[in-house]
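Continuing the batch. This is chain 6 of the set; chains 1 through 5 are on the previous pages. Same settings as before, nothing changed between runs. Recording input and output for traceability.
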Amino acid sequence: MPYPAHSILAIDMSPFGQSLGLVPAMRMLRAAYPGTLLVAAASNGTCELLSASGIVDETITLGVIKSTDRGGSALRRFLSLVRRSRRFSFDLVLDFSPRLETQIVSRLVMGARTITPSKLPRVLGMLLDLGGARRTAGRSAASIYANVLRQAGIEMNDGRVGIALPPEENTRFESRLASGGSRGGELIALLYAANPGNRDGWPVVAFGEIGTRLTNNFGARVIAADEPSDEAFTDAARAFLPPGAIKLAVPRALELMAAMARASIVITDEPGIAQVASELNTPVVEVGDASSPTPKPFTAHRIARSSTRARVSTDEVYDIACEMIQESRSASLFQRS
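Output for chain 6:
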């Protein structure tokens, strides 16, 4: 039975790609608490998706969150969270990615009952954060959201992000493609790096090499896409992208979703983005490490993996991408015949 509450705050200090799991979690929460005030505090992009879906009553945007954020960034987010949450009186706080500052806000400032992931996963996650490593998304990330909800008496039986794109977003993105020089009918390859320059990610130069090879051999139009409200990837990749590449810098979250839906293939080192691309029926190559979960069978989601993401070769990613592009084209021809 769900924990009795009249107002609930959900806090997620995870970076955008990882915090996409908050969307289905809040959907489950809304189903269990149809008349309860639900407020979510998360990255800008995740808050935009939650607002657009109508799942929550209000959001508290915490900016662009990086796994390596420390010092001033963490302090600014702490102050913003305190200031914007003070006008509410929450019965329950669900802290999906606990940090020192979120625990101070929920337990000391608000004095609310606070639920966090069970002890062992939380300790491991904090150790990973202190070491500057990224928590593995996919199955383990989904289990964190399920763990917190279960403690509140709710079963999370559907982990799909379930983005519903308004038609105007697709139309707007087509206009963006045309203004960027796209002739229409060409292969669109979208590149997305979770945390460019971080040792846990795939090197920016590798993304650039893949984009160049797809452009030279398939005539692809490359889109380098940042996470919502950010421009770190397009800035870092600028010198490595092929001529004619479109830089989707500081995008809105729905704009990024529309780009993935329109793409012929997505190449990313962020499991959360790979999941969304797969849900949108866009072929996706995920660059993973040894702990990356295997995608469900019969989906257009493949993984190139090694002991670390940085060790995954561009040849392996390119070969998988070529195979998926050919399969996609063959399927299209079959459907037309």
